[in-house]
Write a structure and sequence with these properties.
By secondary structure, the chain is an alpha/beta fold. The protein folds into 2 domains: about 170 residues, HUPs (Rossmann fold); about 90 residues, Pantoate--beta-alanine Ligase, Chain: A,domain 2 (2-Layer Sandwich). It is built from 10 helices and 9 strands. The strands form 2 sheets. A 6-stranded parallel sheet has the order 1-4-3-2-5-6, with helices on both faces. Helix 6 packs across helix 7 and helix 9 packs antiparallel against helix 10.
Length: about 280
């Protein structure tokens, strides 16, 4: 595996790489969720590129940039063991050099929910993803369903800016008790970690309710919120919403015509966790 730290090195390596090229962008602190994307890229691609860059522009002023988990040596070993050909690990000044003055403004699916809770977040995500796509020129870029709104924003970005890449969204990878894998799970105390699966439990219960015939958005959202509020260690619920899977606008009251997504953001201690499930109408 080649480890490169400059854009020039990356482009030189890409220029001689066989295609198709699969890109897996990460912020490091790798877990099985990231590695599932790497393995999917490896199965699909002649060349796999993974990036490790903790992007400062997607963190708010009171968020966890300084304490975000970092272990570059361990991450590189995992990438190599899972078949990555090129690991791109730039410093912040390589991505945002002195005098950097351009950002990518996103609207549409970037505006509600996460966009309201974290006002500058998707601008930072869109800017760094655009730069990584232009730097590495992949044929396919892989993202996880856990960050469903992010994936929708990136799909919109790629379509609107005519970037020649396919965005592949892969299933959420979960711990045995259902908790969605996330680098931020490392922040949870033992007690908080034991409580955290309530989020997927609530999502799963509502999914079952939907599949049994309940099509009222309000009822589904209320049931999910009630289950979350019943857990004492959940200190705040940023949102519970049934949304259109593409636009992330709140879905119409009567569901069952096309897939929609039930999304949740909740805080356990100082840790903010997000998760979602897709609610699909009955076949036929």
């Amino acid at each position: 595996m080649d480890v490169v730290t400059s854009i020039k090195e990356l482009r030189q390596r890409i220029n001689r790489a066989p295609r198709p090229i699969g890109l897996v962008p990460t912020m490091g602190a790798l877990h099985e969720g990231h590695l599932s994307l790497v393995r999917r890229a490896r199965a699909d691609s002649a060349t796999v590129v993974a990036t490790i860059f903790v992007n400062p522009t997607q963190f708010g002023p009171t968020e966890d940039l300084t304490r975000y988990p970092r272990d570059l040596e361990a991450d590189l070993k995992l990438l190599e063991d899972n078949g990555v050909d090129v690991a791109f690990c730039p410093s912040t000044d390589k991505v945002y050099p002195q005098g950097f003055a351009t950002t990518v403004e996103v609207r549409g699916p970037a505006l509600p929910l996460e966009g309201e809770a974290r006002p500058d977040h998707f601008r930072g995500v869109a800017t760094v993803v655009t730069k990584l796509l232009l730097m590495s020129a992949p044929d396919v870029a892989y993202f996880g369903q856990k960050d469903a709104q992010q994936a929708a924003v990136i799909k919109q970005l790629v379509a609107d800016l005519d970037i020649p890449v396919h965005v592949e969204v892969c299933p959420t990878v979960r711990e045995p008790d259902g908790l969605a894998m996330s680098s931020r799970n490392a922040y949870l105390s033992a007690e908080q970690r034991a409580a955290a699966p309530v989020i997927f439990g609530a999502l799963s219960a509502v999914q079952t309710l939907y599949e049994s015939g309940e099509l009222s958005r309000q009822t589904l959202e209320r049931r999910c919120r009630e289950m979350l509020e019943a857990e004492p260690l959940i200190e705040a619920i940023d949102y519970v919403a049934v949304v259109d899977s593409g636009s992330f606008i709140q879905a119409a009251d009567l569901l069952g015509v096309q897939p929609v997504t039930l999304v949740v953001a909740a805080r356990i201690g100082g840790t903010r966790l997000i998760d979602n499930v897709v609610l699909k109408p009955e076949a036929g």
